[in-house]
Amino acid sequence: MADYSSSRPAWTFLTNHAHVLICIAHDPDSRLTSIANRVGVTERAAHRIVHDLVAAGFVTVTKVGRRNRYLIDVDRPLRHPVESHHLLRTVFAPLLEKDTTSKAAES
To answer: Alpha-carbon distance 86 to 15, whole Å?
Structure first.
């Protein structure tokens, strides 16, 4: 059996778009650099993914001073025909919630 604790797996169940969405849900004031680092993509890729999410209506961007604040529309249906009868809220609810246990464990 492979040991994934020390290396990154070759694949994951969720796409980078889903990972970016989760990062935004956990910190709506995130900078793209921070999102890119957490997801493991370039800042340019993170920008493109956020643009895709905004264009599809999953995310709204509001300017707050010089920063962006992101708002997720959890009542949007998923895009692929296999899961399009489900809302984002239904499928991603546990992943979109802020994880309070990991912060406590890190302290």
So the answer is: 17
What is the spatial distance between Cα 17 and Cα 55, in angstroms, rounded to a whole number? Answer: 13
- Strand, helix or coil at 9? coil
Domains identified in the chain, total number: 1
- Decide: pTM greater than 0.85: no
76 CB-contact burial (10 Å; exposed 0-12 / middle 13-18 / buried 19+)? middle
Write out pLDDT tens, residues 62-92. Answer: 999 999 999 999 999 999 999 999 999 998 8
Please report, for the domain that includes residue 39, its CATH number.
1.10.10.10
Structural domain span for residue 92: 16-96
Angle value at C-alpha 39, between 100 and 83, nearest 5 degrees: 85
